[in-house]
Amino acid sequence: GPKVLQIPSHQIIDMGQMVTLNCDPVSNHLYFYWYKQILGQQMEFLVNFYNGKVMEKSKLFKDQFSVERPDGSYFTLKIQPTALEDSAVYFCASSLVLGDQNTLYFGAGTRLSVL
Amino acid sequence: SQLAEENPWALSVHEGESVTVNCSYKTSITALQWYRQKSGEGPAQLILIRSNEREKRNGRLRATLDTSSQSSSLSITATRCEDTAVYFCATDADTGGADRLTFGKGTQLIIQP
Predict the structure, then answer these.
(1) Minimum CA–CA partner of A37 in chain B
(2) How does pLDDT run across B54-69, given as a tens digit for each residue?
(3) What is the spatial distance between Cα B100 and Cα B95, in angstroms, rounded to a whole number?
(4) Per-residue b or e along B16-34, where b marks 16 or more CB atoms closer than 10 Å to that residue's CB
(5) Contact (CB, 8 A) for B63 and B51
(6) Binary contact (A102, B98; C-beta < 8 A)
(7) Distance from CA of A99 to the nearest CA of B (A)
(8) Measured between alpha carbons, how far is A26 from A108 in angstroms, rounded to an integer?
(9) Are the C-beta atoms of residues A64 and A80 closer than 8 Å to each other?
(10) Do B96 and A100 touch (CB under 8 A)?
(11) Which one of B1, B17, B31, B104 has the fewest CB atoms closer than 10 angstroms to its CB?
(12) DSSP letter for each residue of B26-46
């Protein structure tokens, strides 16, 4: 089936540094998402993105977070500066459409460890 | 409190047996989705069941939805070792679509040989 690739699979950084998580979505998909999962907790919505713009974001999407997809390249999540509580697995997803026909395809996640 | 919750937390059956995972949710929805996540992989959608549907099938999988009790179940028949995974329900919290899904913590299902 369609694949979403996330790079890297694991990232370790020091608190206060910047980090960029990369996502290569399904090639013809138009909508992109980031979800965050803290160890032992449920996966939680961060943001969705379409046509170069954030459509909706949750309260977890702090001011230090930003997303972009310049010219059809990777869909990225940047955190600057990072905090200890940003340690989590971040899942990228993409979909072709919105609405109740929507099927999200998820990547395998990037485990971010902030020290 | 969680908006979506699966139970039990963990489950183990032998290969070939049938198993059911349950989900309760707390908001009105337009659809509920079941996902499976195998170790080292991202979640993969199994079934999407709309609020006006009571049952949906996909091969060995069968999902039910009861909007009056705000609950859903996912049954797997003739289980195989490769069904071992975490199973999540996810709701759209009445946003009109899966633009913003609310996931439960999941049920860890282990299929023993």
Answers:
(1) B105
(2) 999 999 999 999 999 9
(3) 7
(4) eeebebbbbbeeebbbbbb
(5) no
(6) yes
(7) 4
(8) 13
(9) yes
(10) yes
(11) B1
(12) -S--SEEEEEEE-TTS--EEE
A5-114 belongs to CATH 2.60.40.10: yes
> Residue A4 is nearest to which of B42, B98, B104, comparing CB atoms?
B42
CB neighbours (10 Å) of residue B108? Answer: 17
Q: Is the peptide bond before A81 cis (omega within 30 degrees of 0)?
A: yes
- In angstroms, rounded to a whole number, what is the distance separating the alpha carbons of residues B105 and A67? 26
Q: Burial-class residue A14 by CB neighbours within 10 Å (0-12, 13-18, 19+).
A: exposed
Chain centre distance of CA A14: 20
Judged by phi (left if over 0) then psi (alpha if -120 to 50, else beta), residue B95 lies in alpha
CB contact under 8 A, B99 and A48: yes
Token code pair at residue B40: 């080292």
Third-level CATH fold of B4-112: Immunoglobulin-like (2.60.40)
Domain ranges across chain B: 4-112
Other beta carbons less than 10 A from residue B80's beta carbon? 12
In the A/B pair of chains, how many CB contacts fall below 8 A?
67
* Cβ–Cβ gap B99/A31 under 8 Å: yes
Using a CB-CB cut-off of 8 Å, the residues of chain A touching B87 are: none
Q: What is the pLDDT along chain A (115 residues), one digit of tens a residue?
A: 788 999 999 999 999 999 999 999 999 899 999 999 998 888 999 999 998 999 989 999 999 999 999 887 899 999 999 999 999 999 999 998 876 567 899 999 999 999 9
Q: If you ran DSSP here, which 8-state letter would residue A35 be given?
A: E
